TrEMBL record:
UniProt GO cellular component terms: cytosol
InterPro entries attached to this UniProt entry: P-loop_NTPase (IPR027417), PhoH (IPR003714), PhoH2-like (IPR051451), PIN-like_dom_sf (IPR029060), PIN_dom (IPR002716)
The PIN domain, residue ranges: 27-162
One Gene Ontology term of the molecular function aspect: ATP binding
Pfam families: PhoH, PIN_4
Keyword vocabulary terms for this entry: ATP-binding, Nucleotide-binding
Family: In the N-terminal section; belongs to the PINc/VapC protein family. Belongs to the PhoH family.
Matching Gene3D superfamilies: 5'-nuclease, P-loop containing nucleotide triphosphate hydrolases
CDD domains: PIN_VapC_PhoHL-ATPase
PANTHER family for the chain: PIN DOMAIN-CONTAINING PROTEIN (PTHR30473:SF2), PROTEIN PHOH (PTHR30473)
Organism of this sequence: Nitrosospira multiformis (strain ATCC 25196 / NCIMB 11849 / C 71)
Protein name according to UniProt: PhoH-like ATPase
Amino acid sequence: MSPRKPRSPTAPNSSASIAPIPRLMPKLFVLDSNVLMHDPTSLFRFQEHDIYITMTTLEELDNNKKGMSEVARNARQTSRFLDEIVSSAITDIDEGISLQLHGTKNATGRLFLQTQAITNVLPVYLASGSADNQIIGAVKFLHDTHQNRVVTLVSKDINMRIKARALGLAAEDYFNDKVLEDTDVLFSGIQELPEDFWDEHGKDMESWQQSGQTFYRVTGPLAGGFVINQFVYLEHDKPFYAQVKETSGRTAVLQTLKDYTHQKNNVWGITARNREQNFAFNLLMNPEVDFVTLLGQAGTGKTLLTLAAGLMQTLEHKVYSEIIMTRVTVPVGEDIGFLPGTEEEKMTPWMGALEDNLDVLNKTDSSAGEWGRAATLDLIRSRIKIKSLNFMRGRTFINKFLIIDEAQNLTPKQMKTLITRAGPATKVVCLGNIAQIDTPYLSEGSSGLTYVVDRFKGWNHSGHVTLQRGERSRLADYAAEIL
């Protein structure tokens, strides 16, 4: 056996032979038209990566720009953004146009527009006349010609993403509109305290009474994570229910709650049937809280509690001049066509929940008799106005109790439009169930209701409660659980 040769200084595992790691190329995202019509600012949401827009996408924007719908408005806004970007280009369009001058500083990528014909890149079994297939064809062309880059289709259309993946192309949903990836981590407004809470946080505790309420100043590790107007509770030997009023480092001030489960504190004849309903009443009846969000599945009492609080503060306490109720008119099944009458008459079929709850509230006073209840119902209806979302822009509601029902069907932009209608001394209450979204392209993570719950968290004049237990009937509770 011959002796082994000494290792060469340029052997494969020597440091001299290691090639420098190439700098990663930015990704190239091909945007579908439905992404731009869903969020015009998506042009500036891809940070250092480049975006590519096909001529088919521009044609679809042009076809959808007419009308007063949200889609039409977004198509027009996208066209304005593109016009501003392209008209100020100082380089050849083929080289890409910098987005940083027009969007946020984070958008350091470039915009590419299709400037050449793309043909014969798709299999014959895909119809060439389809707009979706033409965009997929552009993705495949870019994938084949830019092999050193990751080319990805971004679309809200599930079937389009499936077709792209079947051809071996990268495709994904548009995630930037989502407030949360997982709604399980959405702020619930409620936190259960551990059994040893007072042992850990009771040292040097201060307590005092003010306006019939007891306040506790506690210091400890949990107090640093509390949120203003969050509810905390302890259900062990001695139940304790409180609301966080102040936070500062590891110190927080807790205020005990008014007990709305007791008949003496009933609200328009209604008492809270569980812990979460009691928390909700403490927000709804507090004049210092201007914005309330209530989440919960069907039958948890969102509308009933809100209407009872609204009637009590409008007719009894005279805090508000009237109740205004609105909701998104998205049908569950097929649309039944145009509805006759005035704005309020057109909204009546959508307000079945209002009528059902008014019947419940009007029967709480058994001593009034049939005539008395009828007169009370007429008085109540005279103080409740039903409004359509279509005519909200430009309005200002002063000293009103505004209820936005089925708010999970609103986009973040629509939610902003509605909440900014609030004038002095107006309270806004948003109700909804993010598991029942009927609006196309909206999900639990991108719903306007999820958006405001997350953004208003911690403001001194807002509060949120997720209602857990159904109180409608045993049948409704069981159906919600097993179906």
